[in-house]
Write a structure and sequence with these properties.
The chain has helices at residues 5-30, 41-50, 52-86, 88-103, 110-117, 121-145, 149-157, 162-200, 205-214, 218-246, 248-251. By secondary structure, the chain is mostly helical.
């Protein structure tokens, strides 16, 4: 029985993940690796079950803080991307500065943010925002800036203004770029939140990692990493579903393969 390529692609990540976990467990068991150095999947699972209430509390904090920062990143990224992509002057003036800002290590901003807004959700939200808005901005700007001149000329002949071309043609055309950027940016947002929580918070998965590491509960620390990865994968899948339902026209050629 031949498995359809679509179903094969859907299950491939889970099969690979299962194989990695089994191999990981075998290595830890065969070599008798200490749980204080590298815990086995079984140990991580038991720690997640044992501390599930605490993990859920910290995970919820990390999730909503990340989503707030990510929401701000979407607004700022779309606005800046629209400005940069619709104007050659803005592209020349703003894009190099944003590239330089993106190259700065965001962890270095956390002590500054603590001074500005105090310890707590503020630094985490702002760090999630700073680390995730750039991919959104770049993809929106790329989608608008690469609009075919011939298409724009035809629309101008038909009476469309520059604003009409950007809003009615440029933005819809940028949607595949936009969703691609969201799937990248949401994972970066979780990184920003977790890093900030490790140094400037008494809640969240980042705080849990530091607390578990200092008490040598490596299984719990790895469990926190698993939870962050699971939340990032969940949000990635949400955006994939929304993308497939709103931009199917952009993928119809690849769906036949």
């Amino acid at each position: 029985m031949k498995i359809p390529p679509k179903h094969l692609a859907r299950w491939a990540p889970w099969v690979l993940l299962f194989a990695i976990v089994i191999f990981w467990q075998i290595i830890c068991s065969a070599l008798n690796v200490s749980e204080f150095i590298f815990p086995s999947p079984a140990r991580i699972a038991s720690q997640i079950y044992e501390f599930h209430d605490e993990i859920l509390k910290h995970a919820w904090r990390t999730l909503w803080v990340t989503l707030v920062g990510f929401g701000i990143a979407i607004v700022v990224g779309v606005l800046l991307g629209f400005l940069i992509g619709s104007s050659r002057l803005a592209y020349a003036a703003i894009y190099p500065l944003m590239t330089a800002f993106n190259a700065l290590p965001k962890a270095a901003f956390i002590p500054i943010l603590v001074v500005w807004v105090g310890i707590g959700v503020g630094p985490a939200i702002l760090t999630a925002f700073m680390i995730s808005f750039f991919p959104i901005m770049v993809n929106i700007a790329t989608g608008l800036a690469t609009l075919e001149p011939e298409l724009e000329d035809v629309l101008r002949v038909l009476g469309a203004r520059r604003w009409d071309v950007l809003v009615k043609v440029g933005l819809p055309r940028s949607l595949p770029y936009f969703y691609a950027s969201l799937k990248v940016a949401i994972t970066l947002a979780f990184v920003g939140t977790t890093v900030s929580e490790m140094t400037a918070s008494n809640e969240g998965i980042g705080y849990l990692l530091i607390s578990a590491g200092s008490s040598m509960q490596m299984g719990l620390a790895f469990g926190g990493l698993v939870v962050v990865g699971a939340m990032a994968m969940l949000m990635y899948e949400v955006f994939s579903i929304v993308e497939n339902r709103t931009t199917a026209w952009a993928h119809r050629g690849s769906q036949n393969h």
